[in-house]
Amino acid sequence: MPKITRRQVVQGASSLALSSAIASPMLLEAARAWAAESPWKPESGASLRMLRWKRFVKAEGEAFKASLDAFTKATGVKIRLDSEGFEDLRPKAAVAANIGSGPDVIWGIHADAHLYPNAMMDISDVCNYLGKKYGGWYPIAEHYGKDKNGKWINLPITISGNLLNYRISMIQKAGFEKIPNNTKDFLKLMQNLKKNGTPGGFALGNASGDGNCWTHWILWSHGGRVVDEKDNVVINSPETIASLEYVKELAENFIVGTASWLDGHNNKAFLQGACSLTNNGISIYAAAVRQGMKEIAADMDHAYFPIGPVGKPTEFHVAFPMMPYKHTKYPNAVKALLAWLMEKDQYNAFLQGSVGYLSHSLRAYKNHPVWTEDPKRTVYRDVAERSRSFAHSGSLGYAASSVFADFVVVNMVAEAATGAKTPKKAAEDAQRRAERYYKV
Amino acid sequence: MVSITGSNDKSAATERISWLERLNSNRNLLGFLFMLPAALVLLVFLAYPLGLGVWLGFTDVKVGRPGHFIGFDNYEWLFQDDIFWLSVFNTFLYTSVASVIKFAIGLWLALLLNRNLPFKSFLRAIVLLPFIVPTVLSALAFWWIYDSQDSVISWTLIEMGLLDQPIDFLGNPNNARASVIAANIWRGIPFVAITLLAGLQTISPSLYEAATIDGANEWQRFRRITLPLLTPIIAVVMTFSVLFTFTDFQLIWVMTRGGPINATHLMATLSYQRAIIGGALGEGAAIAVAMIPFLLAAVLFSYFGLQRQKWQQGGRDD
Q: How far is the alpha carbon of B274 from chain A, nearest alpha carbon, in Å?
């Protein structure tokens, strides 16, 4: 381990202080200018409470906090920022909606605003303004952002990508230059990887991120879906069964233990060199870079999920929208803040700090250098463009959220993959479980 | 007129005093009044949440949305729900196997520690270790021990040449059940062992001396002295042990989240998954309420067991 001297520490601290001393007046100037022109003037004496999920990356958390501080200095609106693990955050968001009090803005996960749309503020003016200014929202962002009547009830600030992570040398040894773009060849790749003693694997346990992402992809890739456009449950279909037959073949080539895998297992197995191919956010790569695991960082890359018989991308990526509560005493301050966070300077810093974990929902940010300065991040640029919502093809709301949270699709795929049930039986049981939630 | 009123007032005043005095000296009433604050605390903090939980089980309330009374709908659905029944089965398997083994090993450890061993206090402290470590931490440790790729157990066996691929501890349903039960046993033994050890130390050595003089062997001394005198403690310890195991949540949640394919979902974890994460508070409450009869049975068993002198002395019901 390199030895750090006191002098180095002092130098580091002083350069940090210097850079922040230079940066903050600039940020403050920009913030003042923005506040003077902004269509939303915060109420005098306004103060806000915000609750967010615990950051994945330190730099993102810092960039976000710096944006909030600049906003406070420019507008005088004090902001208290708290953070929680995102699973603990969801009940809190619901309670705030229920009792009409609590944080003014909650930065949550998935589509929780659609569970209590009446507790949300109408922020259509902010979202339309941002859409116009920054090249428009991706359809998935509009889908998450708007309620049934087309009113914007939450700000789809970011989508977190979940794509294939693979070891370059291992797939080359398995006879492929890159990840094949169709499911047929993908099966071949997985078989070869297994034959070579370098198997890949996907989480089959109740892994709310990785498990849901890959199982929804495989279901949709063959044309299966939980519900149709009118929210009728149609998961027990020949297409679903075809996808499960495919899963069965695919899973025979998985690394041992995937039935127990939760979200963290594949990261660990991949970083140890045991697993050659899996699905994940950019966190495996980021960890390899951060921890100086040069061999793995150099030998790994990312790819889109292959396209199935339906002939188009069928990926699922996780949305992290911001929910503005109607109970706030300072609606203009909330609107001003939301608009501020999505403006060029702040959002660029936010994307830069996120190093590929979080992707943009407004088209103009597609050209951000974070996506090209390291080519291994580039595929994560397109996740908003390629993502469907977990409610596909139906509407967001209680039933969709419950089916998702109860792992109906994950369990169905796992049952077929492990041979616990035949594909037909697994699809029938999933139909029954989903119907129960959509009945109400 | 005046004097009559006056005398009336006087008698009324006397009556009031005597009524107050009577109240003051009424032991039942005073007892009731003195208990009232404690009763209120119990009502507000224990009975109300329990009542609310039971009520929620009869509604279709969702997180963030008020519900309607729907009678036994939740229970009817659960009755047809394979995963619910699987969780009931898992809970019973988990509780019964873990409790029996915890009792056996706990008692054995207590008997060992009750002897005159070198480093007695040190050994006793060590036994408590699994109990002191926060559950989440020990669950994380087991998460590593049972890892599908680099479990220390698999690694050792492979290095010794006994295996050629790692054991799939948590990926195969039966392995997973055995693994989580083993983790629970490890965690639960100290409670049983230390409490039984405390019980053992209340047994007077003179009884053993007398028995030895009468020619009793070790087994007879255990069977006729230790066990009967230990019964009240065993009843308490095992009641608590069963309650803790039956309602276990953290170990499962950290290690498997109920997987693989719900093979280790307990009623508590399923209830949390559906109520808090899935938002179906009504249904989750119904699952939790379905645990109450079993818990109540365990409590009543111990309550009556403790009340009964005959049981305490190792006798049977007439």
A: 6
- CATH 1.10.3720.10 residue spans of chain B: 58-312
- Predicted local distance difference test score (pLDDT) of residue A437: 87
Q: Integer distance in angstroms from the first to the last C-alpha of chain B?
A: 74
φ/ψ of A236, rounded to 5, equals: -80, 80
What letter would DSSP give residue B290?
H
Q: Are residues A300 and A317 in contact, defined by beta-carbon separation less than 8 angstroms?
A: no
Q: By the 8 A CB rule, do A358 and A158 touch? A: yes
A268 to chain B: which residues are within 8 Å by CB? 147, 149
What the block records as the tokens of B180 is 């989580």
- Other CB atoms closer than 10 Å to residue A292's CB: what's the count? 7
Contacts of B261 in chain A (CB under 8 A): 204, 259, 411, 414-415, 418, 420
Burial class (CB in 10 A: 0-12, 13-18, 19+), B66: exposed
Residue that wins the pLDDT comparison between B4 and A301 = A301
Q: Is the pLDDT of residue A4 over 50?
A: no
Query: Which pLDDT belongs to residue A29?
Result: 80
Chain B residue numbers with beta carbons less than 8 Å from the beta carbon of A327 are none
Is the pLDDT reported for residue A318 higher than 70?
Answer: yes
Closest CB to B77: pick one of A97, A398, A436: A436
Q: Does A98 touch chain B (CB under 8 A)?
A: yes
Contact A94/B at CB under 8 A: yes
Closest CA to A406 of A208, A149, A176: A208
Contact A405 B277 (CB under 8 A): yes
> What value of ipTM does the predicted structure carry?
0.76
- Rounded to the nearest integer, the mean pLDDT of chain B is 85
Residue B302 falls in which region: left (phi positive, over 0), alpha (psi -120 to 50) or beta? alpha
- Does the beta carbon of A420 lie under 8 angstroms from any beta carbon of chain B? yes
Span A53-106, pLDDT tens digits = 988 788 888 889 999 999 998 899 999 999 998 778 888 888 898 888 999 999
- B297 CA to chain A: closest CA distance, Å? 30
Task: Pick A411's closest partner by Cβ from B62, B81, B262.
Answer: B262
* pLDDT tens digits, A258-280: 998 988 889 999 999 999 999 99
According to CATH, the topology of domain A26-161+318-387 is D-Maltodextrin-Binding Protein; domain 2 (3.40.190)
> What architecture (CATH level 2) is domain B58-312?
Orthogonal Bundle (1.10)
Q: What is the nearest CA distance from B248 to chain A, expressed in angstroms? A: 18
Which superfamily, per CATH, for A163-315+392-439? Periplasmic binding protein-like II (3.40.190.10)
